[in-house]
C-alpha cells in the first residue's frame, strides 16, 4: 500500500508572547528602555514519528492541549514544523473543525466558491459541483444566507459537503462530534463511513472513545506533545484511560450542567460524564493552567496559598458579552464546591476576539488536601448557549502543609475566641466587632 | 493537480526565486479572481449607488481643494481639477491598498487556519482589487480630459507602464505591511499618520514647481513624487516621461517589490499560528 503521510522526528514550537497582541508602541518603548521583550518558547509537539497508508483511518487521542489540533494543522500544511521531516502526498481537504473555516459574512454559496478555488478548482468545475454540494448539505433554503446565521449543525453539514465533493485524498476531522444533537452526530458518522468506504484516508481527532473504536484501524496517543503510544485502537484507548488515571465511564450519561459554573451537578442518578466536552464552538477553551503566587505553572497547591486558574480561549468570531464560569469539584466524592462566573462578579467582558485568557483568582485557597477537578465553561450573556464546556478535564492537587486542619473539604477563614468566666470585660465584647 | 506539488515544496520560507513565486501565484488565479469579485460585490452591492459613493469622496475633496487654491492660497493652476485628479487618483490607489493591507490577514483568518494556500495571494488580490477601482476612476478622468479638450498624445502608451510599475511598488509595500500586521495589530494607526504626512510631502494638491529649489532634490527621493510627475506629464502635457524618470521608477518599483517579497517569505510560515 502506498504511504500518504510520513513524519520523522517532527517538532513544533510556538512563541508565546506575554501580551495577547503585542503593540508596536510598547515594543518601541521596551526597546528604548533596553528591556528585552518577554517571550517564551513552547514545544507543542516533540519528536513525532509515524506513517499513514492510503485508505487507513487513524484516530488521535490525548488530553486537551496535548497537541492534537496542532498535528492536524501540520498535516494540512497550515503550520510548518520547526524540526523534522514531514511529507504529505495527495490532496488534503479543508480542515473540518468547529467554528473556524468559513467567512461568516459571506453566504453559503460564496463560501463554496471561495473554498473550491483555494483547492484549485476552476469556476466552471465548482459550478458543476455546486448543485451536488448544496444537495448533499441539505441546505437548499439557506444557501444564499450569510453563514453567520447558520447553526453549528448547518455549518458542519456545509463543511462536510464541501470537503467530500472536492474529492480529496485525505480528510482531517478535528473534534466536531463533541457538539450537535444525536441526528447530527449520526449524520457525521455516516459521512465519515461513506468516505472510508471510498478508500480515502481519514485522520480523526475525537474525545469520544466509542467513535474511535468504531472507525479507526489505528490510534495515536498524544501526551504533552509526545507520541507515547500508537497501534491497535483498543490498546491505545486503554493506555489513555490509564493516563487519565480513572476508569473508562464513557457509557455514563452526558449533560450535567444548566448554568455556567453555578449549575447543579446531578448527584443522584448515574454519575455525569467525566472528561466530557460540549458546546457550539464559537469560543473555544484551548487550555487551562493553574498558577501559583509567582505566576508559575503548577498543579500543586497548599491550603491558603494563592491560586489562579488561567483559562485560555480562542474566539473564532467576535462574540459580545460572553460569560466565563467554572466549578471546583472534589474528586473523591464528586461534591461541587462552588460555581462562580464572571457575571456574578459583575465582570462584563464587552466582546472577545482572537486569543487570550481570563483568570479566576483566589487569594487564599480554602481547599483541604486532596484532588480537585475544575469544570470550565463559556456562555453567551443570557446563559442560553454554551460555546464550550469542559466537564472535569482539568485537575489539580492540594497537598498537605498549608494548614493542620484535615476534616471536611475546606478550611474557612475564621478564628476562635475564648471567654473565661472571670473575664467579664471580654464577655461584653462583641466578637465580630472587637472595637466596640 | 499541480497545486499539490507546489503546495509543500515552496513552504520552507527560504528565499525562492522570484519567478517560482510568480508561477505559484498564477496557479491560484482562480482564487485571486474570486477574492477580487467578492470584494467588488461587497463594495458595489447597491450597484449604481455604490459607484456613486466611491466617486463622491474624490469629488468632494476636489471641491475643497479647488476652493482653497482659488480663494485662500491663491495659486492659479491651469485646469486645477484635472491637475489634482491626475495626482490624487494614483495616490488613492496607494492609500487604499496600504491602509487595508494591515487588515487583510486578520480578515481572512478563517481561510488561513483552514487550509494551505500561498499567503501572498491575500495582499496581492487586495492590490489588484484596488487596481480595478483605480482603473474605473481613471475612466472618469478620461471623460474629463475630453471635456477640457486636453489633447491625447502618443505619450499615452506610457500609461500602462507607469500603472504597472506603481502596482509593483504598492504590492511590495503591502507585502511588508500585511506580514507585520500579524505581529503588531496597532500598525494600522501608525500607517494612517504616516500616510497623512506622506500626502503632504507629495505634490498632489500643489504643483511640484512650488517646492523650493533647495529641497527639490529631497522631494525626488519620494517615489510617489516621481509617479505623480510621470502621470501628469503623460495625461496633461501629452509628454513622454524622460528616460531618467522611467529608470528611477523601474528601480523603485522592482526594488520595493523584491524586498517586500523577501520580507514576506521570511515571515509567511508563521502567519497562521499568530493570527
Ligand atoms: N497558535 C498558537 N500559539 C500559541 N500556542 C498555541 C497555538 N496553538 C496551540 N497552542 C498551544 O499548543 C498546545 C497544543 O494545542 P492543541 O494542538 O490545540 O491541543 P489539543 O488539540 O490536543 O487540545 C496548547 O497548549 C495550546 O495552548
Ligand atoms: Mg484541539
Structural write-up:
The complex is a heterodimer of chains A (about 425) and B (about 280). Chain A has about 425 residues and is of the alpha/beta class. Chain A has 2 domains: about 5-240, Rossmann fold (3-Layer(aba) Sandwich); about 275-435, Coagulation Factor XIII, Chain A, domain 1. Chain A is about 20% helix and about 35% strand. Chain A has helices at about 25-35, 70-75, 110-120, 125-135, 150-165, 180-195, 210-215, 235-245, 425-430, and strands spanning about 5-15, 40-55, 55-60, 85-90, 95, 170-175, 200-205, 220-225, 225-230, 275-280, 285-290, 300, 305-320, 325-330, 335-340, 350-360, 370-380, 385-400. In chain A, strands 5-6-7-3-8-9 form a 6-stranded mixed beta sheet, sandwiched between helices. In chain A, strands 10, 12, 14, 15, 17 and 18 form a 6-stranded mixed beta sheet that branches. In chain A, helix 3 packs across helix 4, helix 4 (about 125-135) crosses helix 5 (about 150-165) and helix 5 (about 150-165) runs parallel beside helix 6. The termini of chain A are far apart. By secondary structure, chain B is mostly helical. Chain B has one domain (about 1-275). Chain B has 13 helices and no strands. In chain B, helix 4 packs across helix 5, helix 5 (about 80-105) runs antiparallel to helix 7 and helix 5 runs parallel beside helix 8. The radius of gyration of chain B is 20 Å and the shape is globular. Chain B starts with a helix and ends with a helix. The interface of A and B includes residues 92, 100, 101 and 121 of A. The complex binds adenosine-5'-diphosphate and magnesium ion.
How large, in whole angstroms, is the Cα Rg of chain B? Answer: 20 Å
**Ligands, ions, cofactors:** adenosine-5'-diphosphate, magnesium ion
Report how far apart the termini of chain B are.
Answer: 29 Å
Largest sheet of chain A: 6 strands, mixed
pLDDT under 50 segments of chain A (min length 5)? Answer: 246-272
| Amount of helix of chain A | 10-25%
